[in-house]
Amino acid sequence: MKVSAKRIIRVSLFLIIIFSALYLYARAGGAGGASSGGSRGSSGGSGDGELIFYLIYLLIRILISLPFPFNVISIGVILLVAAIVLNKGKKQVEEKSVFNNIPTDKRPSKQGKISSRFMADNPSFDQTQFLESVKNAFLQIQDAWMNKDLKNVRKFLSDGVYQRFVTQFKMMDLLDQTNRLSDITVNYTFIDKVESDSNYDVIHVAISASLKDNFICGLDSSLNSGGYENFVEYWSFIRRKGVQKKGMFDKQSCPNCGASLEDGLGEVCVCPYCGSLLNSGEYDWVLSEITQAVDYAGKKAGFFSSRSLRQQVKRLVLENSDFSVQFVEDKASNGFLQYITALTLKEPAVMRRFVSDNFYESVKGDFDGRQIVYNRIYLNDVSLVGIIEEEDYNRLYVIIKYSFQRVELIDKKIKIVDPVVISDSKVVVMKRKKGVSPAKGSLYSHNCPNCGGKLSDTLDIHCPYCSVVLNSSDIEWTVDDIMHLDKYRNFLDNNSSLFEYSVSVKTIDSMYDVRDYALNNVLVIAAADGRLDESEKQFVDNLVKKWKFNPEKIKGLYDQAFSGNLTIMMPDNTKKRQKIFELMCKAAAVDGDIDTHEQKILDEVRSYYLS
Questions:
Q1: pLDDT of 489 higher than 60
Q2: Residues 528 and 415 sit within 8 Å (Cβ to Cβ)
Q3: What is the pTM of this model?
Q4: Predicted local confidence at residue 360, as pLDDT
Q5: Which of 27-36, 71-80, 110-119 has the highest mean pLDDT?
């Protein structure tokens, strides 16, 4: 490896300063060590530190005392090793990127390990059998998606995941869309990670698959898309600890009473015979999250499983035995999508029972005006980022990263608002009273938490059976606010002392490096006209090389860009956005001509992210 003279000089100066400091420290410690050590009790920390410094000091003295040329050679070797270590550290920093951690469609050699603690709680767990059930669930869900019919898979879908599909179905129906899938192949599945979530276990499973995807719009053929796709997703399953397998993936029967469920289930995921809430995690594994590979890679390397969060969750479990981070995130995603659906349909009743009175009053004006429909809307990631404990209530702050493409619907005709899929983040505030007894149902499963009665969409917020106020935070987690990221940042900055646990917007933003955003958006521009000419390819290749991206890892980004599935992403920082936008403009003009497709994207980015 080539090590420059300048680097050796810098390292030498650095080590000289360090050695000098160590020398002075050792002498000071030697002068007053007994007194200092004696005053710190029996902790041993100070003594251990002084011993290490003293040993380093002795090593330096030995090296200096060696005869020439052995002293010079020894010091030179140390300097060379230090330079190599620093160079390696710099290289690791340069290559640190979410995109360099994206899994490919090749089965990785290193996979997650299942802890002995998990196996002690679940002695009958069979990994091979579980992964086979996941594969079957994946295939069943693809079929259910294509037919817009979830009745046979409802029992193992969380309410949030179910609502994601239903929201998209409603949008597709408004736009007369169908999505035909064929040639579905599961390349591999493996357990990436097993986590403990209060009284529940969560298993994150990587699924690599390929399929032919044809999206057809009856109202406007310009929205048609499709092609052959290879992708990796992470599916998260949750179950109460110690529960034995009941075969919910494989059998069309109630896991509690055994009654036949051949007719399937609807919005209410309750057995019609024994009244059991089937997707509660009390009977079998439930699919509670689908995360795209790039977001999972960023989250895995991030901040979401900190010790501070784990400690706070333990406190919440003491107050609410049914508490789970995964389930709260699920409810937040559900409530957010109910709000989006209500706005699109211009029907406030759709979201009324999920939101507080204050939030409902604050957004009533949003139901006027244009009808904006989502040609695409999907959630990339949902994560708890803040906790406030009040005297009687808990407030949880959940960030939702989502991607979307909007169109305006005017008399069955479509006017495109977003020329490509773009992304944004919102923070959903969830509120519930402390010490609430385990619910008999769930608002998000369309049954009353107090009595379990079936609910319908209505502006009346009282249960028709027990008359309890449904949107009350005294009985269920309800949406108390939906904030833009900048509003949350200001709120957090001004009220940081109120938070028992919080993640700053800057930290959230650091999941992706600026170059990640830039490469992603440049690829969207390069693929805007459906082809990649030599000048564009050279421009992209130069960025990949300059920014130390792994060509094999980002191959999937190219595929996504040219199949129209790559999403425009931007950081929260305005200055960074401007630099990325300038690079996008440069990429658009590299072939000597900015065509209409590229210009529309640039105009959209300027309008949405920089205005």
A1: yes
A2: no
A3: 0.81
A4: 96
A5: 110-119
Closest-CA residue to 571 (of 509, 503, 505) = 509
3-state DSSP percent of the chain in helix, strand and coil, to 5: 45, 20, 35
Distance of CA 407 to the CA centre of its chain: 26
Three-point CA angle 148, 151, 154, nearest 5°? 105
Structure tokens at 215: 């999206």
Tell me how far apart the terminal alpha carbons of the chain are, to the nearest angstrom: 47
3-state secondary structure (DSSP) of residue 503: coil
> Residue 368: in which H helix or E strand, if any?
none
Contacts for 310 with CB less than 8 Å, ≥ 6 apart: none
| Residues 6+ positions from 246 with CB-CB distance below 8 Å | 255, 283, 284
Q: Which two tokens stand for residue 312?
A: 């706070």
Can the peptide bond before residue 69 be classed as cis, meaning omega within 30 degrees of 0?
Answer: yes
Please name which of 351, 327, 353 lies closest in space to residue 339, comparing C-alpha atoms: 351
Give exposure, 415-452, as e/b (b: 16+ Cβ within 10 Å).
Answer: ebbbbbbbbbbbbbbbbbbeebeebbbbbbbbbbbbeb
**Beta-bridge partner residues of 234:** 206, 291
Are the beta carbons of 408 and 372 closer than 8 angstroms? yes
Helix (H, G, I), strand (E, B) or coil at 464: coil
Can you tell me the distance from the alpha carbon of 197 to that of 240, in angstroms, rounded to the nearest whole number? Answer: 9
Give Cβ neighbours of residue 171 (< 8 Å, ≥ 6 apart).
177, 344, 373, 374, 375, 377
What is the distance between the alpha carbons of residues 605 and 352, in angstroms, rounded to a whole number?
A: 33
Q: What average pLDDT score do residues 163-185 get?
A: 95
Predicted confidence band of residue 550 (pLDDT cuts 50, 70, 90): confident
Could you please report the per-residue DSSP string of 446-487?
A: TB-TTT--B----S--B-TTT--BTT-TTTS-EEEEEEEHHH
Strands 286-292 and 225-240: antiparallel
Q: What is the mean pLDDT of residues 361-376?
A: 92
